[in-house]
Amino acid sequence: MTWPFENDTSAITKKLAKRNLKADKSRNILIIITIALATCLIMTTTLYFFASQRKSLNDAAGRYQAIINEVDNDTITKLVNDDRVQVGVSHLLGLVSYGDYKLTVRSMDETLMKLAKYPDLEGELPKSTNEIAITKAFLDRAGLSKSIGDTISLNLGDGEKDYTLCGILPVENSNYSVFVSQSYIENKISEPASSAYIRLNESDGWSKAAIQAELSTLCRELEIQPEQMQFSTYYFSLIEQRSSQYITVIAFISLIIALACTLVIYSLFYVSIARKTKEYGKLRTIGATGKQMKRIVFREGFHLSRIGIPIGILAGAIAGYVLVPQGWNTLMVFVIAAVTALFVYLCVMIAVIKPAKIAAHVTPIEAVRYMAGNNDVMSNSTKVLHRSLSAKNLAFLNFARNRKKTALTILALGVCGILLMASSAYFNSIDPLAMARRSFPYGEIRLELGDYGPQAHNSEQYSELQKSNLLTEDFRESILDIDGVEEIKEYQGTVLNVRMPTGDIEPIVSDAYTPSSQKLLEEYLIDGTADLQELINNNGIIIENGPQWKETFGWDAAIGDELLIEVGGQTLEVKVMGIVDTNIPYGGYDTLFIPLEMLSKIVPIENLNYQFIVDTDDSKWAAAKDEIQKIISPTSSLYVSTLNDWVEAYNEKLLNYRMPVYIFVMFIGVFGIINLLNTLITNILTRKRELGVLQAVGLSSKQLSKMLLIEGLFYTLGVLLLSISCGTLIGYLLCTVFSAMSIFGKVSYHFPTVEMFSYFILMLAIQMLFSYLAIRQIKKQSLVDQIRESS
């Protein structure tokens, strides 16, 4: 506000701010880089999350919402003629083993191609019995170089035959499928039952509950049994909004970036203003007010933001598009850009508040207290008159000369070290082998009844499989005869259609609870009871305390909750009477335990085995797996996996988590390095006269080099101590908290030796490189010119 009796000096403060900017180009470049980098990181992060969410919604649009299994031709006709839905039809003929993977044989129509959102088919779908279409993933895996119209020899379960390749589906990601014609299916099965993939017309934007209610009503009208319909978990995971989770993550990341950015900008302005104390004192002498001094500093911040923020916005928008091009939306980008620009600008203004106050309080008399050509106030330690002027002592004197500036530099780099150490400590503490062992507590090879295991089937399909169960006692004995096989553990259970308290119906692999497993469940019980007889008397079940209940079904599982089990046209009301820890070393699927006596009443099947875990000699498991696959028929519904497969899968999953975190930490480290370079550059520029005098009285080039190297080493050691002390504490807390949450199972803290050693070497290399370049620059100038250098 300008008072009536005060002259308008805004033009003068603008000119002074611009001249300050011109006089301190190196600082300006560092600040612009810092602002641009912070803006880019926040913009990219925000765009990535919101574009990912938009991509999910785009991917859900037009996708099937439910599958109706085992439907006859009359029902298919009714569904196709119903204007409320789109219907795609498929029939799964079976799976054929090809080495250590399976080839899915099925039919598919054009509508299902669209509802499944497959990429455009090269060629066409098969029409005659001798035509097939195949996925590119299978061709690549089998090492086949085939084109449309070529003849291909395959065994689809009825011996090897020649087929004409009429189509190639360009999908990868282990999708090994062969598509046959409907006439081929009818030749194999007289009355084939199909699966109908359905989607409600004009249902984009509907809630999960509304879609499921409408589809359930449709099935009732067409007299389709509820257990025949299975809602698409994938579709509903796409449409469920996760904005609150995204905003929390974005806010956390933006806060860290803002703190790092604010700290660096504050430090850069603080050092700059300390250097210019004499200039500010002169301005005060000729009549400049404290308010005008503040305006000069704030205008500098504004001008630098005006350059850095647009650069960061542009770079962030480009990065966001490259990361998630399918989620791009122009309006969304403009809104995020505006919010990001305002947020970063506020951070810059907050960062310069303290430096502006320092500039406003400089007086002509106080300026005299500053050493000519130096930006540091004489500390108390310089009052000591007698000291050894060794390179080491000289380095320490300058390091400790301005403790505030030194602390800011160490803190800026320390933030990166702390984040690196805490995150790497947690990731290093996660053991993929131990995680895999949760599913393989008693062996190395797992045999499961079903195509890709029981979880790939609904209750009715799995009941049919178990009626002719391949996991028999004779099969068990044949495996025990294989060299290297030591023991086999059997798991009993089946797939049950479970209706949650929320109304969701989901096929869940349920284990038979027997006296042999009671001791283990009682040991890992965290709530309720595991008494087998009490469960039988009260229709009770035990569930695992896993996140899937809440995340997938929105159900906060608790003792006393009632569920409805539907299987084979029968229903049974059960009550949750026990909850066990998710880290229970049970093996199997350990999601839901139901007493065997109760299970046998609703699923009257003699052999309820659904899984064998084979324990082998550690050196012979690979050979044992090959022998097991030899005795399994290629067309049998048995799925083989190994401990090693699971370890590799967990390693890949951890890498997907680790890389984004490390990249983020690396960018935070750039802020610290910018601050370090500013400190070192400022030290050299403002101490040219001092270094010239020292050289004039006998300081050799070797001693000068040693002094600068040791001075840099003090910064590196300070960063290392801060990173180790705070990083160890935070890393240990992360391991404790996430271990309790069972995100990656129980973890034990491991010190990240490799990461911290690498970080220390990197900091040391930067120090040495800078010292080398600084010494070369000093040598180019004569001692007389250095001594004449004015601040």
Automatic annotation (TrEMBL):
Annotated keywords: Cell membrane, Membrane, Transmembrane, Transmembrane helix
MF annotations from Gene Ontology: transmembrane transporter activity
Residues annotated as domain ABC3 transporter permease C-terminal: 252-351, 663-782
Membrane-spanning segments: 29-51, 246-273, 303-324, 330-353, 407-427, 661-681, 712-744, 756-775
Chief location bin: membrane
GO CC terms in record: plasma membrane
Pfam families per UniProt: FtsX
Keyword Cell membrane: yes
Protein name (record): ABC transporter permease
UniProt lineage: Bacteria, Bacillati, Bacillota, Clostridia, Lachnospirales
